[in-house]
Amino acid sequence: MNIYAYSRAEATPLTLLERIQSLDATRHVSSYVAFVISGHCVGQIHRRLIPLLLSINGDGRIPLFSRIQGRCGAEAITLDDDLSTNEERTRAMNIVTDDLIRNGIIKCRHGDRYGLYNEGSNVRELLCMVDRNAASCFGATSVGVHLLCYRKCCVRTDRQDSIQDCDAGSVSLWMAQRSESKSSFPLKWDPTVAGGQPTDLSFVENLVKEANEEAGIDDSLARRATAVSCLSQMTSKPNGTCMKQSLYHCWDLEVDENFLPYARDGEVTKFELWDSDKLEDEVRQGNNLRPAMRLVVVDFLIRHGIIKPDDEQNYATIQAAMHRERLILWSE
Q1: What is the CATH number of domain 16-25+142-321?
Q2: Angle made by CA atoms 21, 207, 199, in degrees to the nearest 5
C-alpha cells in the first residue's frame, strides 16, 4: 500500500489536506535528540546515530561529541565546546563526514556545503559548514529554489486576430521528470527547475544557474522570474531518518508558446507541459510527483486560482500545513 496515497487503516483515498499532512515528519520526533553547537540548537540527530558520533575523535584523540541534558531532562548531543570558531567546527564536521562515509551512513561527499546556524539571535549566525550529503544527518535546514515556468491558456474568438482575456484559473506548468540515476525519487516529477541552495551563492544567482543547467533557460529570461512564496515543512526519509526543516523558495516565470525547456546536465529525463486539470488531479490522488513537490504544486494552484476556498473546505488548514515552523528540541 502506498503511504503517500492511502491511509494505513483503510484503502480510502486521503483528502488533499491529509496528503499534505502525511509528509510532516514530526511524527518521528521521539526518535531524535537535539543537536547543539555552542549552546544553540541547530538541528536534531536520530538516536541510532548517537553511538557512532560519540566514538569519533578529533585532533589529540579528543571526542568531538558528548551528551548533555537541558531543561526538564531534555537530552542533546553537543559538538565539543572547545571548538570556538567557525573554521574549527567546520574542520571537525569534515572529520565526521569521513566517518559517516566509512560506516556507510552516506555514500560520498556532495561537494556543496550547507550551514548550521544559530537561528535564535536577531542576526542569523553561521556556526559551521557541513557537506550537503552529511547535513541531513544533523537536521540542518534544507533550502531549495524552485522555478515554475507556466503558460496562461487563452481562448480564441471567431476572429483570427483576436484573443479573449485569459481565464485566471487556466494555466499550464512545465514539469521535469527526474533522471533514473537520481539517488532519491528517480523518475518522479518536479516543477520546471529545482535545486539545493549552497551558501556561496545568492538565491537569484543560484536560481539562474540551476535554470540554465537543468532546463537550458537563458540567464536573461530566468532573471525575469518573480519570487512568490516560501514553503516550510519538517521532512524525513521514508524510514523516518534524516528529519530536517525543508524550505522551498518559489519563483514564477510566465512563458509563451515558443518556450521549450530541454535537459542539459543529466538530472532531468524530459519535460512535459501539464494543464491545471492534470496538476490538480496529481496533487489530490496521483503518485507521480516527488512527494515533497506536492506542497510546491498545491501552492502554485492556490496562487493561480485553481484551488479556491469555496471549493476546498480545508483551504485555510492546507495553507497552514505548508508553512510549518522549524521543530526545536532544546531550550537555550
Answers
A1: 3.90.79.10
A2: 85
Cell numbers representing residue 270 in the block: 524530459
| DSSP result, 216-228 | ---HHHHTT-EEE
Domain locations along the chain = 16-25+142-321, 28-138
CA 154 – CA 324 distance, rounded (Å): 36
CA distance 196 to 61: 35
Task: Answer whether 92's CB lies under 8 Å from 37's CB.
Answer: no
Instruction: Using the Cα atoms of residue 257, residue 259, residue 262 and residue 267 in order, give the sign of their dihedral.
Output: negative
Other CB atoms within 10 A of residue 181 CB: 10
Task: Please give the model's pTM, rounded to 2 decimal places.
Answer: 0.86
Q: Does domain 28-138 have CATH number 3.40.50.1360?
A: no
pLDDT tens digits for 168-194? Answer: 458 999 999 999 998 889 999 999 999
Phi, psi of 94, deg, nearest 5: -65, -40
* Three cell numbers written together for 216: 537550458
Question: Which residues is 114 bridged to in the sheet?
Answer: 130
Average pLDDT (317-330) is 91
pLDDT tens-digit map of 161-171 = 444 444 545 89
Cell of 279: 496538476
121 band by pLDDT with thresholds 50, 70 and 90: low
Least confident stretch, 8-22, 199-213, 276-290: 8-22
The cell numbers describing 250, all together, are 518559489
C-alpha closest to that of 298 among 27, 12, 21: 21
Mean pLDDT for the chain overall: 89
191 contacts 215 by C-beta, under 8 angstroms: no
